[in-house]
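Good day; I would like, with your permission, to put a structural problem before you. A protein sequence and the structure tokens that stand for its backbone fold form the material at issue. Thank you for your consideration; the sequence and its tokens are set out here:
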Amino acid sequence: QFHQNQAQWPAQVQFRATTPGGALFVEPSAFTHVLVRGGEQGVHGKAGAVPEPFRMHAYRVHFAGATGGVAHGVGKEPHYVNYFLGSDPAHWASGVPVYGGVELDEVYPGIDLHVTGEHGLKYDWVVAPGADPHRIALLFDGADQLVLSDGALRVKTTAGDVIEQRPVAWQEVGGARVPVAVAYDLEGNTLRYALPKGHDARYPLVIDPVVVFCSYSGSSAPNYGTT
């Protein structure tokens, strides 16, 4: 679920979603991932257990060369949330709307970004007819290492790894979904999408990766055997 920013977080944040062991902050031209691992949360119900060292790690994925998308929530939930953070009422927010996803329009010319949390963290690049998908460039800032393996990207951090699964792409042509060959192209800290066989620029193109928080285990809530 994506909570809208109504001054409870820094101004560049538009929406925030909790992820396994951390959070995702959606900004006009970036994602910021915060990962949390270890500490007391992993030792509930274990007498004398020594907790794993507590670690937090943040990294940002810049949409390099982006014009900055206009974000709006989609799939509004029937409930709302309240934030009373600290003693400064300027950072309090009540009646904050909650959404199932976020869309950023025109991140690049003719290219939108749709983010959802229905089946894990998933985002789609939606490329309009005539727009250039090669303009999409993801610059990773703050990760320890980026590794391409079996077509997937592993983002290594001190608080665990995150995997950007091998992307898929397709176009709707004549009412049928037509697969489009796509692969990651990693150069330094910048990730792009290669389309080795091209695509039909007369139709919209969808590029669809999924993010997996693969090294996370345990829970921020009690998860021992008697719960």
In short: The CA atoms of residues 111 and 147 lie 26 Å apart. Residues 215-227 have pLDDT under 50 and may be disordered. The radius of gyration is 19 Å.
